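User: Second chain of the day. Same drill as before.
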Amino acid sequence: MAFISNLMESRVDFRAVDMPEASRLTIHILAAVAEHERAMISERTRAAMAQAKLRGVRLGNPRLDSAEAARANVRAADAFALKV
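Assistant: Same format as last time:
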């Protein structure tokens, strides 16, 4: 919503490829709906994670302990740095 609002305040003409005839009001409303949906998804995800935690579910790769996971992260970061 903030992104679209900033565009509108800056007088940038925003055109959605899949809806080029959309007015500023339509774009603003759709942005508000998208923001609301994002918040609802986040809320549902947090609730599901909390329920999983109560059931004793461990998240992440169960085959890696913390030290092994840290070493794997370092190896992945080093490999990425070599590519850059």
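Helices lie at 2-9, 24-54, 66-83.

User: Great, on to the next one.
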